[in-house]
C-alpha cells in the first residue's frame, strides 16, 4: 500500500524484501538426535508394548523399590489398613459365632457366668480397634483374649505372622529407597563440556570428573562408550551400537584415586572410533560418548554409578581445562568455580589418522602458535610503550613545572649557543 501511494519508492521495497529473504536460512538445520543418556545420568528410554506384566510381580520387592515415593506411601498405608480391616472382620466373625454379640450375654458376662472369646468386643468398631492393638502391639487393657475359643488363638497367631511380614517388607522397602546408590551419585559431577587437545604428542579426548563429598569412592573406575547408529556390511541397521574405548591410565589397574577432581584422558589412536574424525567433521557426526563412573561408597559399602554423556556440540576442539587445584598454607585447595573452564590452545584441525601419517602437521601448528604468541607479545609491549610515552607527554603538557628551561652557554670564542638540559 505504501508503495502504491508513492510514499516509499517501489525499488526500495523490493530491495528490502530481497534482503530479508537472504537473511533467512534456506537450508534447514539437521534435526537434533535424541540423547541416549541425559546430562544428569538418566536413561532416555521408553519401554512400550510390554505384554508380560506379570514378571514384575515375581520380583515384588524390586518393583516396590522402583516405584515413585507417592505410590510407595500409598501402598505402605493401604497394606496396614487392609490387614487391620481383614482381621477385624475375622475377629467380628469369631465373636459373632461364639455369641458374644448377643445382648443377653452382656448381663451373663457381668455375673461371671459367660466367658467371651474377646472381652469388650460388641461391634465391628471394637473388633477393628482390637485388630489394631494385636498387630501393632498396643494394649490399652480394655480388650483382651480369653481361653474360651481356640479359633481366636489361631487368628491371633496368624495376624502376628502377617503383621511381621508386612512390617519387614514395607520398612525394608522404605529403607532401600532412602539409601539408594544413585543418591550418592548426585555429588559426583562431570564437566559440562569435553575437549580435544594435544597431550604428549597425541590428540586426546578429555573431560573432568570430581567428587563434592569428603567421603571417598573406593575402587572407582571410569568407562567410556561410543553410541552411534551403524550399518553392517550385510545391510543390518543397528540404531544403538555401543563401542568401548580405552581410558589412558598410568596405573596398571583401571581404578582411580578420586580425592580431587581429575581429568580423564582417552588417546585417539587406531583403536578409537574418533580416529578418522577431524575438527570439521565433528559437527556433522551423529555420535554420543557415554561416561560411566562406578565405585563403592566408603561410608555405606553400597556400589554406586554416575553417568553422563557428550554429543558432538558439547566437544570443544583445541581447548584445555584450566588448573583448579592450588596449594594454600600447606593445604591443597580446589576452586570448583573453575571446574568447567577451558582455554584455547594450539591443536591441529586434522584427524588423528592424518596426524599419524604426517607428523609435520603438529610441528607446523606449534610453530605457528609460537609465532602468533610472540607477535602478540610484541604488540602488547609496543602498546604499553606507546601508552607510557603518551602518558608522559600528557603529564608534561598539564604540569608546566616539568618543562625544562633553556640555558645559554658561552664558548671561549665568545659565541653564544642555546641548548636544553
Total beta strand runs:
16
pLDDT averaged over residues: 78
Number of helices in the DSSP assignment: 11
- Integer tally of domains: 3
Structural class: alpha+beta
Largest sheet: 5 strands, mixed
Q: What proportion of the residues is helical, as a percent range? A: 25-40%
Please identify the top-level CATH class of the largest domain. Answer: Mainly Beta
**What is the CA-based Rg, rounded?**
41 Å
CATH fourth-tier homologous superfamily of the largest domain: G protein-activated inward rectifier potassium channel 1
Shape descriptor? elongated
Helix/strand layout:
Layout: H1 10-23, H2 54-58, H3 60-66, H4 69-98, H5 104-110, H6 124-135, H7 150-178, H8 181-184, E1 188-190, E2 194-199, E3 202-211, E4 217-231, E5 237-245, E6 255-256, E7 262-267, H9 279-282, E8 287-297, E9 303-311, E10 315-317, E11 319-321, E12 325-328, E13 331-334, E14 342-344, H10 352-357, H11 360-398, E15 406-410, E16 416-420
Helix pairs in contact: 3-7, 4-6, 4-7
Protein name: KCNJ8 protein
Catalytic activity: K(+)(in) = K(+)(out)
InterPro entries: Ig_E-set, IRK_C, K_chnl_inward-rec_Kir, K_chnl_inward-rec_Kir6.1, K_chnl_inward-rec_Kir_cyto, Kir_TM
Description of the molecule:
By secondary structure, this protein is α+β, with helices and mostly antiparallel strands. The chain has three domains: 66-178, Helix Hairpins (Orthogonal Bundle), CATH 1.10.287; 182-343, G protein-activated inward rectifier potassium channel 1 (Immunoglobulin-like, Sandwich), CATH 2.60.40; 357-387. 37% of the residues lie in helices and 23% in strands. It is built from eleven helices and 16 strands. It has helices spanning 10-23, 54-58, 60-66, 69-98, 104-110, 124-135, 150-178, 181-184, 279-282, 352-357, 360-398; strands spanning 188-190, 194-199, 202-211, 217-231, 237-245, 255-256, 262-267, 287-297, 303-311, 315-317, 319-321, 325-328, 331-334, 342-344, 406-410, 416-420. Strands 1, 2, 3, 7 and 10 form a five-stranded mixed sheet that branches. Strands 4, 5, 6, 8 and 9 form a five-stranded antiparallel sheet that branches. β12 (325-328) and β13 form a beta hairpin. The longest helix has 39 residues, at 360-398. It starts with 9 loop residues before the first helix and ends with a strand. Residues 1-15, 22-29 and 414-421 have low confidence and may be disordered.
Amino acid at each position: 500500500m505504501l508503495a502504491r501511494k508513492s510514499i516509499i519508492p517501489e525499488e526500495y521495497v523490493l530491495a528490502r524484501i530481497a534482503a530479508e529473504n537472504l537473511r533467512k536460512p534456506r537450508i534447514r538445520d539437521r534435526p537434533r538426535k535424541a540423547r541416549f543418556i541425559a546430562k544428569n545420568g538418566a536413561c532416555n528410554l521408553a519401554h512400550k508394548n510390554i505384554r508380560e506384566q506379570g514378571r514384575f510381580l515375581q520380583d515384588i520387592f524390586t518393583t516396590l523399590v522402583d516405584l515413585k515415593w507417592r505410590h510407595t506411601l500409598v501402598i505402605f498405608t493401604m497394606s496396614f489398613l487392609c490387614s487391620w480391616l481383614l482381621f477385624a472382620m475375622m475377629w467380628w466373625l469369631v465373636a459373632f459365632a461364639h455369641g458374644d454379640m448377643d445382648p443377653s450375654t452382656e448381663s451373663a458376662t457381668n455375673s461371671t457366668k459367660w466367658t467371651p472369646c474377646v472381652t469388650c468386643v460388641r461391634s465391628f468398631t471394637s473388633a477393628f480397634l482390637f485388630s489394631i492393638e494385636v498387630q501393632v502391639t498396643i494394649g490399652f487393657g480394655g480388650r483382651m483374649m480369653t481361653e474360651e475359643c481356640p479359633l481366636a488363638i489361631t487368628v491371633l497367631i496368624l495376624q502376628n505372622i502377617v503383621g511381621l511380614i508386612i512390617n519387614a517388607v514395607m520398612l525394608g522397602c522404605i529403607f532401600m529407597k532412602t539409601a539408594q546408590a544413585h543418591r550418592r551419585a548426585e555429588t559426583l559431577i562431570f564437566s559440562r563440556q569435553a575437549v580435544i587437545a594435544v597431550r604428549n604428542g597425541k590428540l586426546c579426548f578429555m573431560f573432568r570428573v570430581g567428587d563434592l563429598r569428603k567421603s571417598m569412592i573406593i575402587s572407582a573406575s571410569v568407562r567410556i562408550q561410543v553410541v552411534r547408529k551403524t550399518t553392517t556390511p550385510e545391510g543390518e541397521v543397528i540404531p544403538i551400537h555401543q563401542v568401548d574405548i580405552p581410558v589412558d591410565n598410568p596405573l596398571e589397574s583401571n581404578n582411580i584415586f578420586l580425592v580431587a577432581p581429575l581429568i580423564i584422558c582417552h588417546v585417539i589412536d587406531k583403536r578409537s572410533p574418533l580416529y578418522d574424525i577431524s575438527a570439521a567433521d565433528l559437527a556433522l557426526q551423529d555420535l554420543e560418548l557415554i561416561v560411566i563412573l562406578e565405585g563403592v561408597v566408603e561410608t555405606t559399602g553400597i556400589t554406586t554409578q554416575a553417568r553422563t554423556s557428550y554429543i558432538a556440540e558439547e566437544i570443544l576442539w583445541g581447548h584445555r581445562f584450566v588448573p583448579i587445584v592450588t596449594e594454600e598454607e600447606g593445604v591443597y585447595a580446589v576452586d570448583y568455580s573453575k571446574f568447567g573452564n577451558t582455554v584455547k590452545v594450539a591443536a591441529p584441525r586434522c584427524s588423528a589418522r592424518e596426524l599419524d601419517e604426517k607428523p609435520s602437521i603438529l610441528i607446523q601448528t606449534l610453530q605457528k602458535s609460537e609465532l602468533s604468541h610472540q607477535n602478540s607479545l610484541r604488540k602488547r609491549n609496543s602498546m604499553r610503550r606507546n601508552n607510557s610515552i603518551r602518558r608522559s607527554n600528557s603529564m608534561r603538557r598539564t604540569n608546566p613545572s616539568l618543562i625544562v628551561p633553556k640555558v645559554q652557554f658561552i664558548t671561549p670564542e665568545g659565541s653564544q649557543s642555546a641548548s636544553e638540559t
